[in-house]
Amino acid sequence: MVANAALAGKVAVVTGSGQGIGRAIAQLFARQGAALVVNALHQASVDNVVAAILADGGKATGCAGDVRSAADAQRIVDTAASEFGRLDILVNNAGFPLDAMIHKMSDAQWDDCIDVILKGAFNCIRAAAPHMRHEGHGGRIINISAAAGLIGSPGMANYCAAKHGLHGLTKAVALEWSRFGVTCNAIAYGWVDTRLTGEREAGAQVLGHPVGIPKAMREQIRAGYPGRPQSAEEAAATALLLALPEAQNVTATIVNATAGWLSG
User: Where residue 102 sits, what CATH number does that domain have?
Assistant: First the structure.
């Protein structure tokens, strides 16, 4: 933990924090003094991140579970209170793209993408209500989004719909919970180097679906992408800004974190 840690005494839940942006956020928040509840689908991923945080001198516990399930979401969120006595920060990071042109998209591709991103965030926010809807609470909800929530993109109808919906959810919750001092914002990232933007040929899967971008298509997209992709660690720094106590007046906002790719 760093000296004069910005999140000292805070308790945070980060869903989908077994790897990628979620893991980077969990580790950064822990270095800044927060106690973390790490979540992923698989216990091995949870244990790995918790061990890394503890080895770095931080505080963390884990709760494996699927945010599509209301019961799992409640258990994940309640772990913050049962283990650390409170919940201050909820980061809804779980989500992934399942690319297909709409005329070829299966029900499973549509449902799994929407349910993890949008229903998962809804489940976790609703589960957080008993912990955060108190006068003067001053908590933070940070929804991890993408440029797909700001624009349309061919082959990503499910992902665009989920992220646009997440932005609507963000703004509604911000208004509903503002009287408790709770802010709710989303971050729309551009290209971030994770397994989800890696080569599909690497064989990564989520919920039985292959993820990543076919190599030839990835090279074409990358060649037309302005600037340098972000690392997961760089992406996590934007989330930290919204988690800071000094960000109490920033709410109902979709932060454009595309490094200048989108200017609108």
Answer: 3.40.50.720
